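hiii so my PI (J.) wants the whole complex modelled not just the main chain, which honestly fair. so below is everything: two entries, each one labled with what it is. i double checked the lines twice but i was tired so who knows lol
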Amino acid sequence: MFKKQSAGNDKQAGDDQRQHGEQLLVPDLEQNMERLERFLGGGADIVCRTLTHRSFPNQRYVLFYMDGIVDGTAIGTMLLGLLEDANSQVKEEADSLYTHLMERSIAVGKIFPATAIEEVGYAMLEGSSVILVDGSLRAIIIDTTGGEGRSVEEPTSQTVVRGPKEGFTENLRTNTALVRRIIKSPKLRFDYKIVGRETRTNIAVIYLQGIAQDDVVKEVHRRIKQIEIDAILESGYIEEFIQDKAFTPFPLIQNTERPDTACASILEGQVVIMVSGTPFVLITPVTFVKFFQSSEDYYQRYDISTFLRLIRMTSFFISMLLPSLYIAITTFHQEMLPTSLLISLAAQREGVPFPALVEAFLMEITFEILREAGVRMPRIIGPAISIVGALVLGQAAVQAGLVSAAMVIVVSFTAIASFVIPAVNMGIAARLIRFVLMILAGSFGLFGIMSGLMVLLAHLCGLRSFGKPYLLPFSPLIVSNLKDTFIRVPWWAMRKRPIGMASNQIPNQNRIGGGKRPDPDQEGA
Amino acid sequence: MISPRQLASTVILFLIGSSSLFLLGGNADRDAWMSVLVGALAGLLLLSCITLQIQKLEPDRNLIEIFKLYFGRTIGFVFGFIYVIYYSYKCIRNVREFADLSIMFLLPDTPLSMVILIICFISGYAVLGGPSILFRMVEVLLPILITIYIVLFVLLLSAGLIDLGRLMPIFEHGFKPVWAAAIPEIISFPYGEMVLFLMFWRYIAADNYEVVMRITIKGYVFAGSFITLMNIITIASLGQFASWSVVPLLLATTFVELGDSLERIDPLVSLLLFSAVYVKLTAYYLGASIAFSYLFRISLRIAAIPIGIGIYCGSFWFKSYMHQVNVGFERNLKFHFPIFQIVIPIVLLLVMLLRKKVRSKSNSASSTKSVQVEATNEARKESVDVQEAISRQ
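here's the output for the full assembly
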């Protein structure tokens, strides 16, 4: 399906093949067939059907395809057409069999010629069918890509209450179609690439011409081109190769399995990278606040969206800071607590044999193990884990005096807070930083936490995503962009595209014509 | 590059810095805030007539390059080195303040060397990131800190602690003690410290130098009013006690109770004060490192290491917090700092103006001009070399 682009656009792949000594087709059909079989290494899934045409009795032609990765219906229709055609008489005798087939007899939309064995072989590996003609130096490649795949389903990792329920699938063509169906603009660009020596994974770089910044698009292309790897199995591979800084807990590239999120990003001037074989597409460049936004924020009313965003931000800080604050206050700064609370805490901790830091570490590690078990275990065993987790490790540990009840509350609340962050990879960042801050809090109290936060802030200020500052609307401060950060103003107030992401070449940054808020009185008058 | 807004934020937080720890102009008693105001005005005069003018004559050079250009290689080097030491010393003072107060209010049992090590590390991390990291951090920090300050003031107000009557009567002993407390102490601390920005102004991405001047002065005026306001609030809430306590503002906040949920908010307030001190000491560390890197033509990342080690070791020179404060307020502020903040800049400005005049005159006399141009070119080339070395990092 992508052969046309890879044959036409992706000159690099072609160059590679030529360097390895490209084998051109020869007039002898037998020899071509043998070489093609050798190139593909044989195998039971290669289907080979020899046909003869009534008007060209001396020339045979052969249909090749790989079973399972082709669209069965398309093959059936095509074969039917070919057979019908084979029995008909060709009027113009001047036609060669090749041109006749090429122009009159194949009942499939996308066909194109090929001249080299490698080209034919790779097309077959992608799911195309191939016709080799006796005596012709060219083969016909017919796009019949298909086969079994998951249908479009509701995304499981990023769910919404209100909003489209479609999710990306593993099929690149389905995914591009999902985007195309939302943005019906001629400015929408799909640049295809092939990465991975062995997997030859198709990658699509999607952006809106004129709205995305040219240098960002160019940079995305440059970084993808630099990747040299044998296999790309998921977009995570690409992400790690193209992100600006390797050593950071924070995600520098966003991922989503929601077409509406991807499209919203494209419309704001970001670039989307789709990788065949995974429903997770990459969005870049991205800023820190983007990870706290859900696509639903734009579908629900602005007031509740703002509230939810603030809740998420709070949750991020809770999941990062709460255990360390608890440790710091109970170990170093008890005077901050009201006396009654202090007494009750002290009473709880009386029998606990460990210092607060060790206690917190034990519980946090326990929870991380529980969470990992929850993800990995077979679904049927689920209830067993929750019983063991909740009753044995929670209730019983407190009753046995191993940990204090307050610590169980802190750890549980932290755990729940970490699930609130819409982007899983940002949640992971908070999880990792939490442990460092806990050690700092255990050794230096609030001073340690503040030191940790200062280093964190310095780190965040130095981060960039494809050249864009990671803390973009805050540092450097762009006041008009603050409308869509931790708050969301009503749609009619967000007149302009966010500054910084979209190209500043276009004269009209307005998204909303007039930008008037609804006023029924005026309309009535 | 650094945006003008980031510059303004840094000027504000840099000036607030450690000045919120002390009762400035304490010698003037309840008129201290007048001293602060007078000091701010005098400082403004110094800033706009001397410090900014130096930069205006050479908008694309930092202090070290200007020294080298106008004083020649050897004398310029000596002056540059003196400033490296001055910046480092200021940094050491701030590190020590930070460390001693942390131990006093937050970490009674932690050894001083450990606390200083952590401070040097968190400050060094920001310096190693390059000149713009600190400025970006401050842009994020400033709104947060200002919000917390406002909340704090509101809490002090609602706790009924603030009594403006404690400021009365004004000018009880006339204007003289006010003036005596302001000059030169309050000019040297904090307002005269703007001399550090001679290291930073050239990194500002502005269309012309007018913007830099305007933004700097705006930031300065905001910081000046803020410090005065803080002074008023401290005196109005503590009265006579203000000049006796170690950190007056912190003492005032110990009286605040947040409902029944938070009994004491002073650990949180000390964090607030310390973040401003952190900004100040990092700015000095950064200034010293940049100066060092230009002097010895090495990259900033390498220069930050000896400076950091120097600051760490130098911090142990003071025997105690009281020793540090005493040395600072009794000796440095009166005799040492004015040299760096007022005397040398004035000398430098005069030399610059003189040489500029000579140069413009010598436009007719070509012989002197060629020498001048040669010297200028050499210095320019040098600065380009260093800049390249830095940008390569």
